[in-house]
Specification:
By secondary structure, this protein is an alpha/beta fold. The chain is 53% helix and 10% strand. The longest helix is centred in the middle third of the chain and has 25 residues. The two termini are 31 Å apart. The chain binds arginine (ARG).
Length: 565
C-alpha cells in the first residue's frame, strides 16, 4: 500500500516539475532513517535538467509543496532530498485499504502471465540432502510469492530419474534384491544396493559393463528392466512425498528427466539444422564464442547417450511451448551455475528469444558448526536428519520450559520446521550459510521462532478480548510507536512485490523481523487492553493487522504459526 501513497505524492510533485508521474513514482524512496520522514524524493536528476543547484531546487520545492495534499504533515529539504512526513491518520487510512481483502499482500501484477518453477527436484534412489532442503524452501517460497503477485504458477519436480546409474541399480536389484526382501524397495534398501554394487565393482571391474548393458536394455525398452526402474521411482517418490508433506511443499507436475527421452531427437534435429552441433572427440557439442568464456555444452556422448543438458534443453522448450510458461525459474544450487548459463545460451543460439525469461535462482551451501551434524568429513547430510534434529531440540526445550503446552506434538513440529525454513530464507540466498542451531531456534534472535512467537503474542491478546474487526478508528493523536508500526505494516504489499521481482525471499523474511521489532516496541510502550475504549479499540485493530501480516508473511515463506508457544 506504500505504492498508493507514492502515487498520490508523485501526482502532486508532477504538478510542480516537468517530469512524469511515473518517473517520480519510481524514484520515491523510504528514507533509511525513520526520523527523516516516510518518503523521500531525490531532486538531483531534476536539478541537473534545470542546471541548478540541487539544494536550492529542493528548498524551493519544499515551500511549494507545503500542504499540497491532505494528510501531509511536513515537507523538508535536506541536502538534495525532499523529505515528506504524513499524518498517522493518513497512513492508517491507506493501511486499511487492503484490510477488507482476504489477503493483505495479494496483487495482480502478474495477471495473465504464467511462471513455471522448477524446485526441490531430487535424484531418484537417493535421499534428499541438505542442498535439496534449500532448493525446496527457496523454491516453495518463490512459488508462493509469485502467486501472491498474481501469476499463474506451475511448480515442476524435475526428478532425476535417468542415467547409467539405473542400469547398475537394476542389475543389483535383480541379483541381490531378493535377499534383502521388502527392504530392497525402500530408499534405504536402494542406497544399500547401490553402495554394494560399487564395492563389488572394485573387486570385479567387469560389473561396470554389466551395469551399462542393463542401462542399454532400459533405453531400448526392455519390459522387465523398465518395470524395475518404475518400481525404483515409486519407492523414491514415496520417500519424497513424506518429506514434502512435512515441509508442506507442493508441485503441480512431476516431470522427470526421462519424460523428455522421446523429445530429444527433435532438439538434436533443431540444433543440427541451425548448424550449432560440432563434433568433438566423437561427441556432439555446442561451442560458444570466446567472449562467453564457457566450455562447450555437451549434447550427445560418443556412445550416443544424451546428457543432463540435452534433457534440460528439451524441458525448457516443453515448459515454454506446452506449459505456456512466460517465465521459467530454476531453483538449483549455485554449483550448477555453469550448467544453466550454458543451457540458456544454447536456447538463445537456437533463436528462442524467450531464453531471456529463463532465470537460474542459485543458492550457496549450508555448513554445520562442529558437533552432531558436522559437515567436516564430507559426509552427506540428509534433509530428514536436519528436521529430526530440530524436532528433538525443540522437544527438549518445550519439555523443560513449557511441558503443558497444548497440542504439544503439533506445535513442536511447527516450531522446529519453521526454524529450519526461516534460517534458510533469512540469508541472501547466494551466501553460504552456517547452520547454527542456537540461533535458528532462539525465540529472541533473528529466527523463525521469534516471528512465530510475536504472532502468538498478537493472537493471545486478541483472544483475550475475543476481538472482532469493526473498522479502524482514524482519529488523531497516534503515538510514535503506533505510527511506526502502521508505516511498517503499510509496506507489506510492496515488500512482497520486491521480494518476488528480485527472486529473493530474504527480503520478505527481513521485513517480518522489522514488523516484530516494531510490534515489540509498540507493545512495550503502549498499553493495549485496559486503556480508554477508543484507544483500546484502535490498538486492537493494529494488533490484528500485525497478526495478519505476520501470519500471511510466514505463510508465504511456507511457515505456519502455532496457536500457543
Ligand atoms: N536433480 C538435480 C539435482 O539434484 C536438480 C535438477 C534441477 N532442475 C533442472 N531442470 N536441471 O542436482
Amino acid at each position: 500500500m506504500l505504492a498508493h501513497l507514492k502515487k498520490q505524492l508523485g501526482r502532486e510533485i508532477a504538478k510542480k516539475v516537468s517530469l512524469s508521474e511515473l518517473d517520480i513514482f519510481l524514484t520515491l524512496e523510504v528514507p533509511k532513517i525513520y526520523e527523516h520522514g516516510h518518503l523521500a524524493w531525490p531532486v538531483f536528476q531534476y536539478a541537473q535538467l534545470l542546471k541548478k543547484n540541487p539544494k536550492e531546487v529542493a528548498q524551493n520545492l519544499a515551500l511549494e509543496l507545503q500542504n499540497s495534499i491532505e494528510g501531509l504533515k511536513s515537507v523538508q529539504a535536506l541536502g538534495g532530498f525532499l523529505n515528506f512526513k504524513f499524518e498517522a491518520s493518513k497512513l492508517v487510512e491507506i493501511l486499511c485499504l487492503s484490510a477488507k481483502e482476504k489477503f493483505l499482500s495479494q496483487q495482480n501484477e502478474g495477471k495473465g502471465r504464467t511462471v513455471v518453477i522448477d524446485y526441490a527436484s531430487p535424484n531418484v534412489a537417493k535421499k534428499m540432502h541438505i542442498g535439496h532442503l534449500r532448493a525446496t524452501n527457496i523454491g516453495q517460497a518463490i512459488r508462493n510469492l509469485a502467486q501472491a503477485n498474481g501469476y499463474k504458477v506451475i511448480g515442476v519436480n524435475h526428478l532425476g530419474d535417468w542415467g547409467t546409474q539405473f542400469g547398475k541399480l537394476a542389475w543389483a536389484l535383480e541379483k541381490w534384491g531378493p535377499a534383502l526382501g521388502e527392504k530392497a524397495w525402500t530408499i534405504d534398501g536402494l542406497l544399500e544396493l547401490y553402495v554394494k554394487f560399487h564395492e563389488e565393482m572394485e573387486k570385479n571391474p567387469a560389473l561396470e559393463a554389466e551395469g551399462a548393458a542393463t542401462f542399454l536394455r532400459l533405453e531400448q525398452g526392455d519390459l522387465k528392466i523398465k518395470e524395475i526402474w518404475l518400481k525404483i521411482i515409486e519407492a523414491s517418490l514415496k520417500d519424497y512425498a513424506r518429506m514434502f508433506q512435512i515441509l508442506n511443499v507442493k508441485h503441480d507436475l512431476i516431470l522427470g528427466e526421462s519424460f523428455y527421452n522421446d523429445k530429444l531427437a527433435d532438439v538434436l534435429k533443431l540444433l543440427e539444422s541451425k548448424g550449432l552441433l560440432k563434433e568433438s572427440e566423437g561427441a556432439q557439442v555446442v561451442m560458444f564464442e570466446e567472449k562467453e568464456k564457457m566450455p562447450p555444452c555437451l549434447i550427445k556422448k560418443s556412445d550416443g547417450a544424451s546428457l543432463y543438458a540435452t534433457r534440460d534443453l528439451a524441458a525448457a522448450i516443453y515448459r515454454h511451448d506446452q506449459l505456456k510458461g512466460d517465465e521459467l525459474i530454476y531453483v538449483v544450487g549455485a554449483d550448477q551455475n555453469l550448467h544453466f548459463k550454458q543451457v540458456f545460451k544454447v536456447l538463445e543460439l537456437m533463436g528462442f528469444d524467450w531464453s531471456k525469461n529463463c532465470h537460474h535462482v542459485g543458492f550457496g551451501l549450508v555448513r554445520f558448526k562442529e558437533g552432531k551434524m558436522s559437515t567436516r568429513k564430507g559426509r552427506v547430510i540428509h534433509l530428514e536428519d536436519v528436521i529430526e534434529s530440530a524436532i528433538e531440540i525443540v522437544t527438549k526445550t518445550v519439555e523443560e520450559k513449557n511441558p503443558d503446552l497444548e497440542n504439544k506434538q503439533e506445535n513442536i513440529r511447527k516450531i522446529a520446521i519453521g526454524a529450519v525454513i526461516f534460517n534458510d530464507l533469512i540469508n541472501d540466498r547466494m551466501k553460504n550459510i552456517e547452520f547454527d542451531w542456537d540461533r535458528a531456534l532462539s525465540t529472541e534472535g533473528d529466527s523463525g521462532p521469534y516471528v512465530q512467537y510475536t504472532t502468538v503474542r498478537c493472537k493471545s491478546i486478541l483472544r483475550k478480548v475475543q476481538f472482532k474487526w469493526v473498522g479502524m478508528p482514524l482519529e488523531k493523536d497516534w503515538t510514535q510507536e503506533e505510527e511506526k508500526l502502521v508505516f511498517t505494516l503499510m509496506q507489506f504489499q510492496d515488500v512482497v512485490k520486491v521480494s518476488y521481482s528480485n527472486l529473493k525471499p530474504n527480503i520478505l523474511a527481513q521485513y517480518l523481523l522489522q514488523v516484530c521489532a516494531d510490534f515489540s516496541h509498540f507493545y512495550h510502550h503502549n498499553r493495549v487492553i485496559g486503556v480508554e475504549s477508543q484507544i483500546e479499540n484502535r490498538r486492537l485493530h493494529l494488533v490484528e493487522l500485525c497478526r495478519r501480516t505476520l501470519e500471511e508473511g510466514l505463510g508465504l515463506l511456507n511457515i505456519s504459526a502455532p496457536e500457543m508457544m
